Protein 1
Amino acid sequence: MKSARHVPLKIPLPPWLQDHRFGETAVLPAVEIMALLARAAAREYPGAAIGHIRGARFHRFLKIPPRAGHMAATAVLTPSAGGGLLAALETRFRSPNSTMRRTLRHAELHFDAGGTVSAPDFEAAASPGENGALLEAERVYPELVDFGPAFRNLRGRLQLDRQGVLAQVAGSPRGMPVAGAGEVSPLGAVFALDAALHAACVWGQVFRGVVAFPTAIESREVPAPTAAGETYLAKVSAQAANDGDLCFDIWIYDRAGRLREAALGVHMRDLGHGRRRPPSWTAALAADGVPPPQPPPATTRSATERSLRHETLRFLDTGGDNGTGGGRGRPGCRR
């Protein structure tokens, strides 16, 4: 293996990043960490394959200081066999009671050339299960996902059943100019996959009773990067995890039914150790045919109601609502 290259980073901190919080602390989103490393890799190694990620691990949160315009970090980039690239994000930390500084590794992943993604057929991916419920995206924020406006990018209705979630996800927040949605990344808009992770978080609260955050992604393929200002359809498929974590496969399609990206073997865990619990009304969604309390956060589906299929077709017909008005094996998961 070749020697590592340590690349100093000056991470810009636009005010909207303060909307991404764990409890009372603003933290850098996992999707933004992947985007940062992809940009650094593309600059330092122009010929490197960036469109496929495997073995992403998110070890610890990177806290965002309040009222800061930038933050220092280091991208550690190491060329690997076959033209791949190992990448890690690190910061230096000094305890207030010590003069010594130590290195904190927040995340690491492996870029490589990847391969052809065997994606589910769009018609099959968009087809609802036999039993399920519709949940308005407005009810997700802040009751289930307590983020600020910049990270509230689920749209329309979420369609939930015990196999997963079907949801519309936006490539940029409502009211945010496309030019203000962050630096362009080879991986596309950060907000679309981030919103799909919110849908997975909702599923965990409804069907497993836990508030979970992403800790690992076994494989991420981006055949056609998502873009700010667009809305996509995300299929979140629940998988069984060997280690007890929640585990999902996520597929993101555009309105023409083309796969834009896939995140497979997405591990999520209750990082708050039970300190935050889902609201009590989520239990009603997990029980087929049981209506939620008033005011209703969701409506259960019946044969005479608007079907999940209709929701999908409406997305395809209208091009989605952008809110602006106008494989590889996954050793951590088992099926």
Note: The chain is about 15% helix and 35% strand.
Protein 2
Amino acid sequence: MNVRQTPRAMRSIPGKVYLVGAGPGAPDLITLRGAEILKRADIVFHDALVRPGTLALAARAEKIAVGKRCGRHSTVQQFINKRLVDAARKYHTVVRLKGGDPMLFGRAHEEIAALRAADIEYEVVPGVTAALAASAELGVSLTRRGIARNVAFVTARVGAGKAEHDWAKNVAAADTAVIYMGAGQAAEIAATLIARGVPRDTPAAIVENASLAEARRFTMPLCELARAAELGISGPAVIMLGEVFASALLAATEEPTTPSLSATA
């Protein structure tokens, strides 16, 4: 018989908060440790992109959506921080479930800082990030002897009130680059990189819904990345750049599809 943990409203010892990576999408790509913690969670604060099948692992828990998606209603980060602290003072096992890996573009540092300030115990449970799932979808290694010895994970997005950052410098210097949360800005990203001297014919790929049955893969040279708006991308996607993707681009352009913008599903 499943019995939910009694809230700790009248107890002085707070619970523990777990920052858990849900992985890139497919529920069976969460780690064994992450799944085990979800099974005993009392309350789960989850991102918008976490799949129902993953949430189902937390069968006994209260589930609260605190997701952030570009162009949609989002929960203010300071409010999320406060809710985690408040929940830890009431429940035994609190989970903050984040898409991908909590420590990569997940604002985990802000939540950890709030938990530390409140003297709340926490633990980070790593997850598979989208770049690795996208690499698997393409069947292309992000590193390769003699071609790519380093990889940069970047985002071109800047939070409200935050200073601009030179993300393009990092991409231009990398052998392989993966740009998170950039599909909606593909035209601007391509123009900026070309202006910074990245060759127009640099092989590029966009992978949408990596690890899921509805995954889609697009390959193109950098100069055609602006056409991403025509692809109807609505799921989470990453942009990938580098010579390691040359073979994928060549293979796609040899198939009977649109010559300059090739897609596979």
Note: The chain has two domains: 16-125, 130-264.
Protein 3
Amino acid sequence: MSALSVEIRIHRYDGHNLESFRDWIATESPLIVELTSREFSDEIVILRTPGHDNELIHGLLLCEGVSMQGVEISLAGNRMTVFSPTPIVMEHSMVATTSCSLCGRNADAIETGKKLTTNTVVPAKLIVSLPAAMRTMQQDFEQTGATHSAALFDKQGNILVVREDIGRHNAVDKVVGYQFLQKSEGIGVVLSGRISFDLIRKASQAQLQFVVAVSAPTSMAVQFANDLGITLCGFVRGESMNVYTHPHRITLS
């Protein structure tokens, strides 16, 4: 057994027989996060795939617009303590589920995001090559078929890091945390599934110019990406893609 997956016994029906064998499933486990300051204490629970928890919490705090100055983070098993000199205001619901990081938010949280002003231009062939490159690094998905992936890429098209998790937003938070902690020069994120507006919001908080995915965006994702200056590419499969917003960053040469 590993932290990311667990081997169990199952029964598979093949149309004729029901046979017993062992298979791997993705691990889902709660991370209890205590948020503290000199005059404040709160607790949230994040359901996630264990691993890279330091990146996860850094990315989550950054995507929530929390200043990291003076923040101290300690981790012991499935419990994490985050101390900040000033109170941490989290719009997150008390339980961050694996399906949606914005359920339980108020209307103001939905409207927030950082507009991008930088413009890195890359070839279209670079963009369409990214999902296949990420796919070769999705080890947990290959084993379990149950994890989402997010990958950070640079202007040369190099995959800087891939993070997998049962939660789409957790995978993105881990990538954002990696970018912050490693001070890497990523310009965009590749997603293994659909694009919802909360993922656009996270990309904007991390000042990522591109959001690239193998599936479709929602209407709010397209509107949000357009308003925030993010180049949004969906249905990136084979040698084709749809560019929904800000195509000026993509060239044919």
Note: Residues 122-251 form a domain with the Cytidine Deaminase; domain 2 fold (CATH 3.40.140.10).
